[in-house]
Amino acid sequence: MPEPAVFSASYAEARGKFVDAARAHGARVFEYRDPRQKGPDGEALCLDVAVAGPEDAERMLVVGCGTHGIEGYSGSAAQTAWLVGGGPARLPKRTAMVLLHAHNPWGFAHKARGTEENVDLNRNFLDHTQPYPDNPGYAEVHPIVTPETWDDATQAEVFRQLDQLRERIGEQAFSTAFNGGQFSHEDGLYFGGRREQWANYAFREAVVKHVAHAKHAAIIDLHTGIGPWLEHIYLCFHAQGSAARKRAHDWWGERAVNQAGVTHKALASYQGLLVDAFAAMLPKAEVTAVVVEFGTLPRKEIQRANMAGRWLRYHGARHPVLAQKVHAQFCETFYPGEPAWRAAVLEQSAQILERGLQGIAG
Ligand SMILES: [Zn+2]
Predict the structure, then answer these.
(1) In whole angstroms, what is the distance from residue 12 CA to residue 124 CA?
(2) Ligand 1 centroid distance, CA of 113 (Å)
């Protein structure tokens, strides 16, 4: 497969390429199928898992994509490129690669960020039997970011009010209020859900089945959006001074832990992250986890796109012509068509995966 051919226009196409490449290159494929629903074209929605190398390996690198649906197209291309590039044959000894294709297949297939319940999967990994964490700041954000119309004047007014709020409460409080995650407004942004999502369940099933025996486990969760164009950034949530944070630094360099390239002036305090769940599920393993974001547009445009995505979900059906245009812009924000951007994703992801493998192999 020539490199650009690893990029797909639909979930079914991406899934097909991934599964075919895995089988053709000696990886074993496992399927976790959503029993309740299908995609927009009637396609099955699955978390597909490809395991390359010994299934009982004590050292495992997990690479996942599509936690935020639409962002999975690039991660899928990176995974398929690793397979068709002969990655399985070059694995370090006694080390396995576990590729998780489409953490949130509903969002991937619908080219949306959230799940079928408007849930941000990356805020859903917490204990749903306990009271949810409070994000009181979001109550002020919600009426601003949920307009019923989505024209230029509305957007200008939304940003005027957000700027005012940010000035009043400060960068850190604004970031946490805006995108730290919230459990109070189910039709809002960064909603963490009121129950475990099927995608959350499927991810944990897959980790238990394929990774739980590992003594050394790492995960790279591939995203797109925040970060400079043609560049990638790392988000590392391991505590300052921890051995895990030091490993991330050793494997991927200083930028894995110093937030190089992060365009947010202050990162939110996040709740319910997938990578945190991964670490919590493997208490006996030495776990190293990073999120990688392939940058597309500045933060303001990412905010605009996420508000647009929310508008599409709740109001788009009443404005089909506008909705089509807004959705095309939304897709371009998280999955740019520009060949130089796609080439950068492949080049950089190949290095990131290779360094992860060398790191986990010791
Ligand atoms: Zn994301």
Answers:
(1) 25
(2) 8
Residue range 279-286: mean pLDDT, rounded: 96
According to DSSP, the β-strands at 44-52 and 95-101 are antiparallel
**pLDDT(264) > 80:** no
CA 208 to chain centre: 20
Strand partners, 194: none
Dihedral sign computed on CA atoms, order 276, 282, 286, 287: negative
Can you tell me the distance from the alpha carbon of 76 to that of 252, in angstroms, rounded to the nearest whole number? Answer: 21
> 294 with 74: CB under 8 angstroms?
yes
Please tell me the distance between residue 221's alpha carbon and the centre of ligand 1 in angstroms: 9
Task: State the pLDDT at residue 265.
Answer: 62
Centre of ligand 1 to C-alpha 349, Å, is 15
Distance CA 18, CA 234 (A): 24
Question: pLDDT category, 39, cuts 50, 70, 90?
Answer: very high
The Å distance, Cα 225 to ligand 1 centre, comes to 7
Say how many Å lie between the CA of residue 89 and the centre of ligand 1.
Answer: 30
Within 8 A by CB and 6+ apart from 36, the residues are 198
Burial bucket for residue 152 (CB in 10 Å: 0-12, 13-18, 19+): exposed
Q: How far apart are the C-alpha atoms of 117 and 343, rounded to whole Å?
A: 33
Residue 127 has pLDDT above 90, yes or no: yes
Is the CB of residue 108 less than 8 Å from the CB of residue 13?
no
Residue 244 and residue 217: Cα distance in Å, rounded?
A: 11
Neighbours of 268 (CB within 10 A): 19
What pLDDT, on a 0 to 100 scale, did the predictor assign at position 333?
Answer: 98
Q: What is the CA radius of gyration of the chain?
A: 19
